[in-house]
Amino acid sequence: MRKRIALLMAAVCSFAMLTGCGGGGKDTQTPQQSTTGSPVFNGELERNVTIQVLENDTAIAQGYFDELIAAFNEAYADYGITAVDANMDQYLDLANDGPYGYGPDVLYQANDVIMKYVEGKHVYPLPVEELECYEQIPDAAWQAYETEVDGKTYICGVPVNVQAGMLYYRKDLLPENWETEWDDNGNDIPDMVETWNDMYEFSLERHAENPSQYGYMKSLNDMYFSSGFLFSYGGYIFGDNNTDPSDIGLAAGDAEKGAWVLSQLASTMNEECIDDTITTSQYSKLADGSYFATMTTPDVYTTFLDEMVLVYENEGLTEEEAREKAKENLVMTTLPKLPESGDLTEINPELIDTKAMGGINGYAISAYTKAPNACLAFVDFATSYENMVERNKLLGVAPAREDAAKEAGGISELLYQNLESGNIVLMPSISEVGQIWTPGQTFFIDLAMDVFRTENEKKYKDLEALDAALEKVSKEIYDAIYTLQ
């Protein structure tokens, strides 16, 4: 590892120089100076330095980060390089805090968060082709961190794991007769986790049998998860592969069918689907059996698991017994398929894949660090095959590395395949993406509320009304980007 890092550093010092992310170059070119004047990637690994790393809260809580920095510090002890927890909020604003000397040297964030720092030159372009992980990460993941300046492309982050909506459900809450009544194709997979039509039917039945229990539950106000239903029928955020903010396509194709699906699913829930209530209660409610299923990202698998362990321990099991039982009964899988018609009551529908908004979480290096070479060494170490496999084991996340995803198997490999096939639509990596959330959330809240309005008060009685509403949202986003700034 150390020999390869030395070669990496030697390669870097032959690159052309620029300042921040704003100058010319291709992929591996890097800046000589940060906006604060510190030398950058000069080929010499700094000695006797401490670098602060901002990591994901779950990675810290589950002990993975402690393991990672301990291993790194041991490997680089001869250089006197020490990585420590930055001990900062994971949503720190580097653009405002960095210039004043407050901020991490290395930060782990989603691609849209990291890339918003590019315009102000708060993070560095990186020599990614020299990293050990480079060939193992697909182009789609690298593209999430690309920026173009004067016709030349730079990469300002290193992908770590794939994020997208996943279905979580309780295996032990399946009907006792599911193998005969809920497995029409005989493939040993319950129908309600294969198609949204069957999930809709099952949710109605479960709630009818016990009013305190529900099938699928999810807060519709979350634009990140709800937008995937629009994408499935041809909607999109920005044109030209999410790089043209003048072309906003939430109403494109038959996106109104996706909104209709959400409305039908909301009708099986309660009014908690309107706001964040389900989002905050999903862990405990799935654990105590109130919910059969929900949708969220892979990185919170351990949070669901821990909640279930507590429930089982309260029922009298030992911690070891409770954890084994929780692992057996908590299932995370890819999203069910959708009916091409958008009608969840249709019998034997033509099915299409459900697309999901996703993101690529990764590492970036602050333009304000005084030890850029040590930071680069940390990123290379943290994205090694061994560490990506370990991250998956402890956190349940899907590695962005192909070899690590294959080693993890199961859901991680499926997520990786969904990314390559286009069923995961990555959040745009341009700053204008910040304008989509409020208009989108406002619409999805209103859509959820509509389910609980009286018949004569409903706004969205047909597909035409839904299409008009999505056109309105697209215009609101356009205005926020171009008219109201």
Outline the structure in words.
The protein has 485 residues and is of the alpha/beta class. The protein contains 20 helices and 16 strands. The strands form four sheets. Strands 1, 2, 3, 6, 14, 15 and 16 form a seven-stranded mixed sheet that branches. A hairpin with a 2-residue loop joins strand 4 and strand 5. The radius of gyration is 24 Å and the shape is globular. The N terminus is likely disordered.
Alpha carbon gyration radius? 24 Å
Structural class label = alpha/beta
Profile the largest sheet: 7 strands, mixed
Strands, count: 16
Helix content: 40-55%
Count of DSSP helices? 20
C-alpha termini separation? 48 Å
Principal-axes shape call: globular
Strand content: 5-15%
Unreliable residue stretches: 1-39
Overall mean pLDDT score? 89
Name the features.
single chain, 485 residues, alpha/beta, seven-stranded mixed beta sheet, 41% helix, disordered N terminus
Topology readout:
Elements: H1 2-12, E1 50-54, H2 57-61, H3 64-75, E2 82-85, H4 94-97, E3 106-110, H5 111-115, H6 139-143, E4 146-149, E5 152-155, E6 158-164, E7 166-170, H7 178-181, H8 196-209, E8 214-216, H9 223-232, H10 239-242, E9 244-248, H11 255-266, H12 277-287, E10 291-296, H13 301-314, H14 319-329, E11 330-333, E12 338-339, E13 351-352, E14 356-365, H15 372-382, H16 385-395, E15 398-399, H17 402-408, H18 410-421, E16 424-426, H19 437-451, H20 463-483
Parallel strand pairs: 1-2, 1-3, 8-10, 14-16
Antiparallel strand pairs: 3-14, 4-5, 6-14, 6-15, 7-10, 7-11, 12-13
Helix pairs in contact: 9-11, 9-19, 11-19, 11-20, 12-13, 13-14, 16-17, 17-18
